[in-house]
Write a structure and sequence with these properties.
The protein is an alpha/beta fold and 255 residues long. The protein has one domain: Rossmann fold (3-Layer(aba) Sandwich), CATH 3.40.50.720. The protein is built from seven helices and seven strands, in the order βαβαβαβαβαβααβ. The chain has a seven-stranded parallel β-sheet with strand order 3-2-1-4-5-6-7, sandwiched between helices. α2 links the parallel β2 and β3. The protein is globular, with a radius of gyration of 17 Å. Nicotinamide-adenine-dinucleotide binds next to α1. The site of nicotinamide-adenine-dinucleotide has 28 residues, from α1.
Length: 255
């Protein structure tokens, strides 16, 4: 288990993470557990969630796993009930599931459009609806993984941009709606090397790194650190925000 972070920040807290069998979700589960959280590692990939939870346990952390397809309201009800019966409370929710389904607007069929919105945006609504009753009694924090696609245009991803942009608007709305009870923020990762990048050509990766002011691509731990900050008491005065974590790529004029 990673040694970064302070063991005190999440001691006594329970965190439920989605899409945590891989990439950003797995790194965040490891990070929160390293800082003392009891983490409920969920993913549609049940085997992968079990593997990540097992690794955390082997490193001395507290973890449980369960299958959760974020597009299923029934799965959501069961996962939140599982968190409650495990520790009695839910303090942190990391809504992280997503994948960019490409297709120019004039070529997208209805099914592709709705699949993208269901995975990235409907799922957030289902998770929030299921977890708010428990989160509000704990004074919890929700962090949602958005994307730089919500803030700037990339050719060929209109449905992904709309879904991620919807997340960023929703966190402002929810932050107001649940005011002093639950904080809501989103993180907007830039280029982060995970399974999502497995088919991206090396040449494209090198060009992207060269155009990024910090001079490298992101790693899942970069996003985990930002999620941990937003979920922690260090961010107790931060709500309704969309935090870009992209090495400065989106504020650079370099083409
Ligand atoms: N990697 C990047 O460059 C990047 C950039 C911006 C935003 N993001 C966002 O970060 C999030 C995580 O991406 P990643 O790069 O870590 O991807 P990843 O491919 O490493 O992991 C994605 C995980 O999502 C799970 N998943 C897929 N469908 C699911 C469903 N219906 N229910 C539950 N889990 C499901 C997969 O099983 C997998 O474990 C996504 O929301 C993605 O849009 C990633």
């Amino acid at each position: 288990m990673t040694s970064v972070g302070s063991p005190a920040r999440f001691t006594g807290r329970t965190a439920l993470l989605t899409a945590a069998a891989s990439g950003i979700g797995a790194a965040t589960a490891r990070r929160l557990a390293a800082e003392g959280a009891s983490v409920l590692v969920t993913d549609v990939d049940a085997e992968g969630a079990r593997r990540v939870a097992g690794e955390i346990q082997e490193g001395g952390g507290r973890a449980h796993d369960r299958p959760l397809d974020v597009t299923s309201p029934a799965d959501w009800a069961a996962a939140v009930a599982a968190a409650e019966s495990w520790t009695g409370h839910l303090d942190v929710l990391h809504l992280n599931a997503g994948r960019n389904l490409p297709g120019a607007a004039h070529e997208l069929n209805d099914g592709a459009w709705h699949d993208q919105l269901r995975l990235c945006l409907d799922s957030v609504f289902y998770g929030v609806r299921a977890a708010v009753p428990l989160l509000r009694t704990a004074g919890g924090a929700v962090v949602i993984t958005s994307s730089v696609h919500a803030a700037i245009g990339f050719r060929g991803f209109p449905a992904y941009a709309a879904a991620k942009g919807g997340i960023d608007a929703l966190v402002r709305q929810l932050a107001v709606e649940y005011g002093g009870q639950i904080r809501f923020n989103s993180v907007l990762p830039g280029a982060v090397v995970t399974a999502l990048w497995s088919e991206v050509p090396e040449e494209y990766k090198a060009r992207t790194a060269a155009r990024t002011p910090v001079g490298r691509l992101g790693v899942p731990e970069d996003i985990a650190a930002a999620v941990a900050f937003l979920a922690s008491e260090d961010a107790s005065f931060v709500t309704g925000q969309n935090l870009v974590v992209d090495g400065g790529r989106s504020i650079s004029s370099q083409e």
